[in-house]
Amino acid sequence: MDLTFTASEQAFADEVRTWLEENKPTEHMEPLDTQVGFEQHRGWEKQLFDAGWAVPNWPTEYGGRACSIIEWLIFEEQYYLSGAPGRVNTNGITLLGPTLFEFGTQQQKDFFFPKMAAGEHIWAQGWSEPNSGSDLASLKTTAVRDGDDFIVNGQKTWCSRGAWADWIFCIVRTDPESERHKGLSYLLVPADAPGLERRPVGRLDGEPAFAELFFDDCRVSAEHLLGGEGEGWAVAMATASSERGLNLRAPGRFLAATERLGELYRDLGQKADGVDAGLRAEVADAWIKAQAYRWRTYQKAGELAAGGSMGSEASYMKVFWSELDVELHATALRLLREQGERSSDWMSGYLFALSGPIYAGTNEVQRNIIAERVLGLPRR
Amino acid sequence: MDFTFSDDQLLFRDAVRDLLANECSPDAVRTAWESPDGRVPGLWAKLAEMGVVGLTAPESAGGLGMSQLDLVLLHEEAGKVALPEPLGDHTAVALATLADIAPDHELVAQAAAGEATIAVGFGDLSAVLGASAADALLLQSGDALHLIDPGDAQIEPFTSVDESRRMASVSFSPSDSTRISDDADVVSRAYDCGVLAAAATCIGLAQQMLDMTVEYVAEREQFGKPVGVNQAVKHHCSNMGLAIEFARPLVYQAAWSLSTDSVGRGEQSRDVSAAKVLASDAADLAARLSLQCHGAIGYTVEYDLQLWLKRAWALSAAWGSAAFHRTRVADALL
């Protein structure tokens, strides 16, 4: 065990930090969950791509640097500590990306990866339906084969940034006679496909960053099937593991947030009676938990390098970071007292954090997965 | 960056696990409750023979000259079996400290061989483990450490909820002749070694309580099915698992921090405190929820869960509670 960075890891960290210091946007950007901000952030993705930082852990042929998992974690830490803009194509790069590596044909990889990395294709996720949330396998949107195409009918919802995205990765029922997990397929749908209508829905923070998708005899080429017909559930579960585990929330985000929480505490503490009793312990707790998440992640990286897999343990990660994110923002709002209700980065961070325990499988579902698949309790 | 234990560290852990599986069954722990010194007759000698007791002592004194990082996995094993032996106080604190400041003291070789036992006391000395039966006492007084003959101290025993823990409050008269170090860094480091040992033991205790609970709720049937199919029970188990899953790497990180010169004294203390916060919380949560999931059977002295519950209550507070160490982390950060 040696928990210091090697000389080459340190050099990598320095290179990332220096590049970000010199290149991160200085002018104000609208939030990426607005139509204007969405396009501004697309421009930033292109800038990252041109410098080779959009997807550092991908192979060089697709615009990456083939860096190690440790280097990727270092990149994420430096990225968030630098205060650089949010990543608008996270759904593509970290959710669809690993799935496409595992299940995609060579042709699909060659077509999609470069455009995804460059921000030319920004992706949204089309999984939930009005009556299929936690019970995803009950989904009803159908895709019926018609020559070289599928004809898609049905409705998807809670599709983040789905109103402006260029492509949507969907799970659809290709065997209309099938039930539950069988007969599903994973279909990549261009947002401009004829017969697809998109309606923005305001989220809790007021931004129109959810979308409802209506498929009315929507025609999609069968070339865009990811994995085999009827194998959609297995493909989707690979994505879900990425979504819950390392890929979606590298510890850098929380390390940066707890740094800012400490600054807020110190600023308010300058004034006499500036901080309420009890909050000092909460600030310390946020730091401790962010460190725990960081070290668990480096420990996991070691396990993965030694041939281990993420599997259902991803549920541990997802519950922990999402609840930490809510707690640390709630602490910030409590520190702000009556000013907590004021529109601020802390309030918008809090509103965003509140989605964490819901999306990517609610934390109640995650706790069931932990109990059944990690600890081995009987299902029924 | 390499967050893995070496093959040697893991093999040693496995060997100790095997020994404890044979020699420290719940029945053996119960014999400790009845024995005069609260320990399992003969077990300390076997651990000494393996090198565990003298692990931190210098090789010149018959020890293994190893670090807190080498020791941390063994504390976890000790917790899993509720080992009623002073591996933390004697080996992690006393021997490791004497190895640094008085490696040639005659007591070191005896202690490394398991022939002499050293009890340790910090702070107000109101809760010292094994003071009455110890051969020597290593006690803090301000920024100094003193090595005392138990006959020269006033020892007032009290009964612990965990009857293998023979506790006492201790007082003594510090003098130039008893002082063996007046280096504040030595004192604080010795204390941190005790905190780390307690934290790692808490992880083992919590893991064992979770494992016992998972086994119990999968077997125990009510309403015609295992109680573990109920979501409320599942979530109790998941919450125990979560607390352990994220406390453990922090304990390992603290063990590394305490074993390297590349981390400063203050940061080592901060890291050890952070680990104790989550480890104490995990042990408290596991004790609370494992008892709840067991129902009334867990509330009996016949059932073995009580051995872990009581140790967890003791060690969660020993060497500073979660609240104490949260404050220490805050002091370092804010």
Per DSSP E runs of 2 or more residues, the count of β-strands of chain A stands at 8
Spatial order of strands in the largest sheet of chain B: 1-3-4-7
Return the structural class of chain A. Answer: alpha+beta
List the uncertain runs of chain A. Answer: none
Question: Strand-and-helix sequence of chain B, N→C?
Answer: HHHHHHEEEEEEEHEEHHHH
Radius of gyration computed on alpha carbons of chain B: 20 Å
- CATH domain class of the largest domain in chain B: Mainly Alpha
CATH superfamily of the largest domain in chain B: Acyl-CoA dehydrogenase/oxidase, N-terminal domain
* Individual helix count of chain A: 11
CATH architecture of the largest domain in chain A: Up-down Bundle
Explain how this protein is built.
The complex is a heterodimer of chains A (380) and B (334). Chain A has 380 residues and is α+β, with helices and mostly antiparallel strands. Helix content of chain A is 46%, strand content 13%. Chain A is built from eleven helices and eight strands. In chain A, strands 1-4-5-8 form a four-stranded mixed beta sheet. Chain A has a four-stranded antiparallel beta sheet with strand order 2-3-7-6, with no helix packed on it. In chain A, α1 (7-23) runs parallel beside α3, α4 packs antiparallel against α5 and α4 (90-103) crosses α6 (232-244). Chain A is globular and about 70 Å long. The model of chain A has no long low-confidence stretch (mean pLDDT 94). Chain B is of the alpha+beta class. Chain B folds into two domains: 7-181, Butyryl-Coa Dehydrogenase, subunit A, domain 1 (Orthogonal Bundle); 184-333, Up-down Bundle (Butyryl-CoA Dehydrogenase, subunit A, domain 3). Chain B contains eleven helices and nine strands. Chain B has helices at 7-23, 26-34, 43-50, 68-80, 87-101, 106-112, 184-219, 231-258, 265-294, 305-317, 322-333; strands spanning 118-121, 128-129, 136-141, 144-148, 154-159, 166-171, 179-181, 221-222, 225-226. A four-stranded mixed beta sheet of chain B has the order 1-3-4-7, covered by helices on one side. A three-stranded antiparallel beta sheet of chain B has the order 2-6-5, with no helix packed on it. A two-stranded antiparallel ribbon of chain B has the order 8-9. In chain B, β5 (154-159) and β6 (166-171) form a beta hairpin. In chain B, α7 (184-219) packs antiparallel against α8 and α8 runs antiparallel to α9 (265-294). Chain B is globular, with a radius of gyration of 20 Å. The two termini of chain B are 27 Å apart. The relative contact order of chain B is 0.11. The mean pLDDT of chain B is 98. Classes of the chains: A alpha+beta (380), B alpha+beta (334).
